[in-house]
Amino acid sequence: MPKRSGSISLTSYDDIFETDESRAEKQLERVQNISISELVPFKNHPFKVVDDEAMLRTTESVAQYGVLTPLIARPLEEGGYEIISGHRRAHAAELAGLTEVPVLVRQMDDDAATVLMVDSNLQRENILPSERAFAYKMKLEAMKHQGERGDLQIERTSRQVVDKLKSADVLGKDTGESGRQVQRYIRLTNLIPELLEMVDQKQISFNPAVELSYLAPEEQETFLAAMDEVQAAPSLSQAQRLKKLAQEGDFTLDSAREIMNEVKKGDLERVTFRNEQLRKYFPKSYTTQQMQDTILKLLDQWQKKKARDQER
User: Fold this and answer.
1) Within 13 A of 34's CA, how many CA atoms are on the CB side?
2) Model confidence at 161, in pLDDT bands (50, 70, 90)?
3) Cα 129 to the chain's mean position, in Å?
4) Is residue 97 pLDDT above 50, yes or no?
5) Which runs of consecutive H residues, i.e. helices, occur in 150-205?
6) Which of 30, 147, 216, 310 is most buried, taking the most CB atoms under 10 A from its CB?
7) Is residue 238 part of a domain?
């Protein structure tokens, strides 16, 4: 008698006697206490979790009252859970010495999880330009995927209505901004990290930064060198001319330096010094801010001395 090849899969006792009701119950969302060690951040999470004053306040609150609002996470095939909403709460709980946090476990695909992750974080008061830029980009891509599958539902509109709207306009409608402004934020993701950090630190304004995002990465590096030499941030007009130079293939360090050296309208009544003019008076280790603070301190001392001399 010939042997039958292949393995036989046996159904477990629990599976045999599992009812439809118990199977459905497994799919229901419910809050569970889950170990922090089993939680992992959302892939490419665009929002920064930093140990600032706000985090200190959150940590103190969690230590006293616990995590009052459950996190939202989805189970991973390889085990553990991916946080969709609640990264800051999870970090605060860990700092407070908690080992478990309440989590609403939800089955979600990548696109739906991305949309929820972005929406839940955009409710925060203080969001950096870089955070908003990458969040918009991630959500826009997820919305496009959902639209291609035909299951995109924004405010219960039909697929026909959604198709008539640009994805950026739909996203902007959710966030209270125009589709064009959404696209301008997404442009910032093309900046090299050094320039994007300057935008977050308000060393470069938003509108000039959008124009600079059209420069190739190596051109941005060159611009950064020119900016460092002249110790000045670009105006919108300067950034637009730098962009035009790049588009025409005429962008060089000299041309960038020449544009950045121009006196802006708002600077006509200012007294400015080039970096090399001041460096000889300070230790090499001094930063620009330290030089500025020292100069102001010396001017203050000079003014007080002048006032005392006049009183004599």
Assistant:
1) 24
2) very low
3) 7
4) yes
5) 159-164, 167-175, 179-187, 193-200
6) 147
7) yes
